């Protein structure tokens, strides 16, 4: 069993003593309030070390002497998972910042982490702790070098959204009367970021020693690489502008415009866009919005980002995707939080397009070949299942030919819990770009699940269009012979025409059966 191997407390104690000494010196800054004192690096590290110690002791004492496998063992370890997940949730809420961000990552890793953890920590994606109004005002006035009342005639008491690094308030500009959204970085996040990353790195090293089946260092490496950009709201503003320019042809997509005069590295002011979270089923019903159509359009957007533009919004969880009703069942999709985009190289785009072409056919030899080129080797079957989030039986039979049922969901859960070492190996082998692509895919499929349209043919057809275009357009660029370019172009349009005809055939069949 995954959590059976536990190290003795003596090496762990050494780890914690060494780490605490380091943690005390990570961050130094002026203490202006009791909360500033509570959030000093040494206390933040102390809370983290205490939590890890409690978790280790809990597993060690609760599982001691229990035979494995047995119903008694299974019951005991599930309860340990639940208690440990609650401890981690408390730690994330107490320390905030990077700890919440890691918790959000973990909550989306159903294929690797026990459900007690993913379900408990999922609350962090929609209900992250809120900063006090005093802290928000302090950051705004410090960054904009003016009193809030001199800039805004109204500034909401409570945020309309809170996340790991910042929260958003609705305000009205004093000069123009325009309603805007003001994203304000949490007061202590930047100061504590280095401490938190170092602490998380140490804790992951401890986790690797306790649970060698898990390889989570890649998660910390990704956070270390991406966090500086996510903490720079000017960088986010430029990402939003570029995304708006690249996807302006998608008339249903809206990206808030940035007010650069009131934007700094820690404060981002943008137009206020109304709407409900994309997984708010009651809102969709109330406004007669088709959830299937919503998922098709989101799928088209994400597919264009990955396969055609190579410019991927890497955090499209429900809190960052709004649906704004325009009446009569019409709506627009509002995409928020542009702090993290992935620039996907042409090499990876080609390999990923080739992989999906092989999966959609299905062509098992081609799947193996492409997976090998991506570094996965003999674990190509597991890799294909992780990419599609379907069983190997469905992959080999063609994922477009069957919808996922409860039996297949149970099968995936069973294999996910028994193949954790292999899953960790796949994650460590594959190109780093694939980590954010898989994360985005998982977030998209979670939205589909919540709206009840996972695995629909239209969603696959939208992606297939982008895969075919990506593969053929890159082949056209590589071809030197004009006649070869013409042949490739003809094959591309012929394939797209077949998808177009098939999609309308499906719509006709479905409408006839109603």
Helix and strand topology:
Elements: H1 9-24, H2 34-38, H3 41-63, H4 71-95, H5 98-107, H6 115-121, H7 133-144, H8 148-151, E1 152-155, E2 161-162, E3 166-173, E4 179-185, H9 189-210, H10 217-230, H11 233-246, E5 253-254, E6 267-271, E7 276-277, H12 281-286, H13 291-309, E8 311-313, E9 321-327, E10 330-335, E11 341-343, H14 346-360, H15 364-373, H16 380-388, H17 392-397, H18 406-418, H19 420-429, H20 432-451, H21 457-478, H22 482-513
Parallel strand pairs: 5-10
Antiparallel strand pairs: 1-3, 2-3, 3-4, 4-6, 7-9, 8-11, 9-10
Walk me through what this model shows.
GO terms for molecular function: ATP binding; protein kinase activity. Belongs to the protein kinase superfamily. ADCK protein kinase family. Pfam families: ABC1. Keywords: Signal. It is a single chain. The chain is an alpha+beta fold. The chain folds into three domains: about 100 residues, no CATH class; about 140 residues, 2-Layer Sandwich (Phosphorylase Kinase, domain 1), CATH 3.30.200; about 170 residues, no CATH class. Helices cover about 60% and strands about 10% of the residues. It has 22 helices and eleven strands. Strands 1, 2, 3, 4 and 6 form a five-stranded antiparallel sheet that branches. Helix 1 runs antiparallel to helix 3, helix 9 runs antiparallel to helix 10 and helix 13 runs parallel beside helix 21. The N terminus is likely disordered.
